[in-house]
Structures are given as C-alpha cells and as structure tokens.
Amino acid sequence: MRKLVIALTATAAIATAAATAYGAARPHARAVAARATHPQYGTFGFDAAGMDRSVAPGDSFYRFANGNWDRTTEIPADRSNYGMFTVLDDLSRNRTRSILEAAARRPGTRMGDFYASYMDEAAAERAGITPLQPLLAEIRSIRNRSQWAAVLGRDLRRSIRGPFGARVDSDERTPTEMIAHLRQSGLGLPDRDYYLSDDAALAQKRAAYQTYLAQLLTMAGEQNAAERAAAVVRFERGLAQVQWTRVQNRDEERTYNKWAAADFERNAPGFDWTAFFRESGLSGQRQMLVAQPSAFAGEARLIGETPQGVLNDYLMLRTIDSAAPYLSRSFVDAHFAFHGTVLNGTPQNEPRWKRGVTLVTDSIPDDVSRVYVQRYFPPAAKRAADALVHNIIAAMDERLQHLAWMAPETRERARAKLRAFTPKIGYPSFWHDYSGVRISRNNLVGNVLNAAAWDWDFNLRKLGRPVDRREWGMTPMEINAYANPVWNEIVFPAAILQPPFFDPNADMAVNYGGIGAVIGHELSHHFDDQGSRYDEHGALHEWWTPQDRQRFNALTAQLVAEYDAYEPLPGHHVQGALTLGENIADLAGLTVSYDAYHRALNGRPAATIAGFTGDQRFYLGWAQVWRRKYREANLLQRLLTDPHSPSEQRAAVVRNLDPWYDAFHPAPGSYLYLAPAQRVRIW
Question: How many domains is the chain built from?
C-alpha cells in the first residue's frame, strides 16, 4: 500500500456545503463557525506575508512564495521538521488528547486505561526493565538456530523487527485473494547506506549507533557490552550488504515472487523456516510472496554463518530498542538521544502526552477514531470532500481522452480504470472491535504487546477469506493520504480536511492549487511508473502497449535527470529514481487541477485579487502547502530513504508547466527556467 503525505484545500463549487459542514463540526463552536466568513490564511487563503518578493519566481519559486515564512519560523525543539503538515498534526493530537484524557478519567474504558498506563511515568520508573525480563529470558535461553528462528517468528506478533518482515495483503496478481507478503527487514539504522557508505556524516551516525547498542546492553545488565554491540553492528552490516536498495524495491514486477513452502528451504537455506512459520502462525500456507529473493538467500546464509551468541544479542537489542520508549526514563532518554537527536537532529523529546496520544492511536486506532469522527468530521464535511474528488476525476478523464503519447486502446483502458476508482473520504464505513485486547492501567508493556498480538492475529485471519475492501491503511486523525493500486482506491483521512489545506472561505484558485492538485496527485499514482502496471481490477500485469511504455519511460527519464540535479545538502542529491513516482504525481496533479480550475471558471476571466491573477494564486496555493523546514540530520535521512522530494523541490515542479511561465514570466537563464523543449510533459 503506497502512502503519501499530501495537502488538501477546498473548491469554491462546494464552499457553501463545506462551510455548513464545518459549522457542525463541534456543537459548542457552531456560533463561531457560522460567523466565520474569511479564510484562515491571508485575505484569500494564501499567506502573502510569508512571501519573499526579493526572490524571483524563476530563481526559487518556493522561496518567492514562502521565503519570509521560512526565515521567521523556528522549528519547535521537539520536532525534526516543521511546516503545514505539523501545524495540523499538532491540532489533531490536541483534539485526540482531549478524547483520551476524558476516557482516562473513567477507569475500565479501554483507550482511557491504555492512555493512563502510558501517562503513569512513576510506575514506569519503578518497573525499570522488569516488564521486559520475560522476553529477555526467552532470548537468553536460546541454544540453537531453530530456537532462534522460533523466537523470530513470535516476534512478528510482538511487532519487533527481525531480518524477515511479514504482512497479510491482497495478491497483486489476484487482488480478490489475501496472501502473506514477506520482505527484507531488521536493520536498526534507517537504510542500508548508513552501514555501507563512506560519507562522513553517515559514518558518524554509524558509530553513534554502536555506542547506543552498547548502552542498551549495559542498562540491561549485560557484560562486555562494547564488544557485543560491535558484533551486532557487523551482523547488521552483513544484512545491509545483501538487501535490495530502495530504488530496486520500487519495482512492482521484480518484487512479486511467489514461493511454495518448500521453496524457502531450497532457495534460502541456513535458516529454520519451519520453526519461523510455526511460531508466527504462517504454517500451512500453500504459497507466499517474497519481495527480495536474493536478499532472503543472503540473509539466511548470513544467519547460518553467524555465531549463536551474536544472533542472540541481535534479538536482545532489537527487543530492548523496540520497548525502550515504554520503560523507565533512562531507556526513554537513550532511545530518543539516538533516534531523535542523532538520526533526526531533534533537540528535545516530545511531551509525554504527545507520545501517549501517538501510542494509543497507533495501537487501538478505531476506539479513538470513532469519537474523533463524531466530534470533528460530520457527514456534511464528508459529502463536500466526496464532491471535490469526483470533480477532479472528471478533469483527469478529460485529459486521458486526449493524451497524445498513449495508444487509443490504452487510453480507453485507462479511462475504465479511472471509472472503477473507489475514493474513501474521512473515515472507514465500519469500526474494528478490540474487545479481545487485554488492557490494564498498570501494565504498559503488556498493553503494547497485547495490542500488537491482536493486530497480527486479526490479519492472519484474513488468509483464505474474501478481501474486505472496507479496510483503511490510515486513521482519520492522520494528516496524510494514499493511493492503493491493488484496490484501485484513493484515501483521504478526515484530519487533513481543514485549514490551511481545506478552507471553505478561500479563493477558488488557491483551493484548486491545493486540494485539486493533491487529489490529482493521488489519482495519477494509479498511472505512474509502477501504479500503471495495475489494471482496472487492481491486477498486476502489463496492459499498456510496448510503444506506450517506451514513450512513457522516455518522458520519465527526463524527470529523473531533472531531480537528480538538485543538491539540497552538499554532496547529497535528490534521488530522481527513488522519488520518480511522487514527482510524476506532483506534475500530473498540478496539470489536471489547472484544467479543472479553468473549467470551473466557465469561460469567465478570473478576477485579480491583491495584485495576483487567478493563475498566480493557483500556483501560490500549491507552493504554500509545501512550507516546511528541516533539521539537517532529518533532511539527510529523507534524501536517503524518502520517496518524496524535499519541499523546495516539490514546489519547483512548476518549472515544467507552460501556464506557470505565462503567470510569472521567469527570465531565461534563471535557475528554474526550462526552454519549452526541455519541459517534461507527461499528462
């Protein structure tokens, strides 16, 4: 399931309905909402005070639109980056906090007891590492590789990552069937490059990681911590050497490999697959999907060659690191010092209540979601958002009809795929029942493990059953959205449908530059370099002609080269191949939404507002939603691991769009200027 952090705003066509919806969002705020007639940002939905007009649009459209905001905004001490998404995330978590605190005042309420168990910091301090001792004792008792593989299988139910990850999802070639998907996993650092690169910054983080592992072993009462930590890092480096790169993992065809049970021992010897599958609950599966066959073979071989003590220490450290945020203060601080400060540059941990909100929401999401939706996202808001999506779908269909590089028969299949879309807006149509999750007010680690086990067992029960397409991959509280090509759907959670991204009082042009471009972005994911390999039924196979694919690949190669040239940090470029799908979607989203905006004008010229033409306001709306500042360590990690380009480069996609040139007249020779023949035109 591919997920994308995106931004939303509203269209003028449904402004009245949206205003009515938000007036009903909170009963105690109805009078205030009813009186609201002005946009939250600026005079027309765009914060013009955040611009830097000393920067020419052609030199940096991001800084032209956002430079003063960027210069005057400080990243909060508990954040690795800060922008429009974090503004809404703070709002969402504050709202969720009020829900959980109210529930915590009523003992016996599942989400309230869970939250109370996390907020009882004194109890965690008294317990120390004691809650984890049963798992550590299990690891210390391991005497051979079969026992080790068995614990690794049980760790899937505990959400503790080992070399082989697993999930249950649709079979990409037969989307109506559920199947177990296995993938490479198990690195303690964010990416294989952190282990293998000679870059000085990454080498420094690698050394800090080894120190952190030694610290965890020492706090757990283990001897020879430094030597043992070094051995575990060497083992993980071996895993990194055989694992696939993130660019390789984007290939939907190469990562689809169906193995029968007997194939695991034959293709990846050195690991006790029988014990692993037995303890994970995956025994008896006729076939499973393996994403990276050569990595599985290499990891199994490495496991067979590694001393038992090192393997046990690896499991111990993965377990302690996973549980550290729920233990005493020394473990919490050590975990944050590495994961928060070293890897992301964040100086200060979040307040405990924020971490508690995140934990409970992630663990038993529908208990929280049900209340959140009732309070903050009424049916009228959902209807308004539905209308927005269908408006952009119509514009996308119009563009598909006239796509010059695609064969006529392929265009018709593409339109059929578009007609088959399922937009999911706001929240799911049903809620999960967590009555089987044992929650106690005085057993935080137990609560975390019980919720993880429920989730794993729930997903195992999907095997052999019909696909339930009502499922969501996000909560309504998330500031996020995603496209799932296997289910041929786009999903927009409730929490992102609010200012600054969803503003019923904003100018139509700004709204189309925000919500319209974002909806178009998600739609186009189903036609990007990987999503286009799924047909209207969500089945993975090639339905384009060879000539379609050849022409499309020639266009996307230009986009790869364009983004490869960006260097946000000295010596570290955007990876054009890694970010290709998102860059295609940004380009498509703006293209389609621009069409929709002009269709909505019905032939009337757009008024000039505050000195800006309609087209200028459209593109400023796009740039505003990408306001974001990064700490250097966080930006480095994103350049290595994130399939999205950084915000400045996302805003710069406008350089490929002819109407942007007509709107802002960038000078030839300016940084963003591309001659007409150099502009990438895919949609």
Answer: 2
